[in-house]
Specification:
single chain; two-stranded antiparallel sheet; alpha+beta; 128 residues
Length: 128
């Protein structure tokens, strides 16, 4: 299955309005760099995509295994935006999970589609 294209539009300010599959998403920059701070910064949206993908993947896996996974919270933070970018991750689980199950879920979280995409080189095809 090929994902639907995301379309984005920017006006004279830094706020970007995007649409995908009928859903609206916005991005902006803080006031101190010329934005209106009406939405998350692009890098924050990237972290939100990664966090949600990790959480959904763990939930799917635990459900397939029949584990008592009642949820989790994740915290992601850029430690360094270099080469490579380093992101600190903390996941807290809710439910009656043993340490082996928690470790397996942590491992599975690193195999989500967004994490896989970010861990590899990305190339762009330019459409004329």
């Amino acid at each position: 299955m090929i994902d639907s294209p995301l379309t984005g539009k920017i006006g004279k300010d830094y706020k970007v309005r995007m649409s995908i599959r009928g859903h609206e998403i916005s991005a902006d920059e803080p006031v101190e760099v010329g934005g209106t701070d009406e939405a998350a910064k692009p890098g924050e949206l990237l972290l939100s995509a990664l966090a949600s993908c990790k959480l959904i993947t763990m939930n799917m896996y635990a459900s397939l295994k029949g584990w008592d996974f009642q949820g989790a919270t994740i915290s992601l933070h850029y430690l360094e935006k270099g080469d490579p970018t380093i992101i600190e991750k903390q996941i807290d689980f809710i439910g009656d999970l043993d340490e082996k199950q928690k470790q397996r879920l942590l491992d599975i979280s690193g195999r989500c589609p967004v994490a896989k995409m970010l861990s590899k080189s990305i190339s762009f095809e330019i459409k004329a």
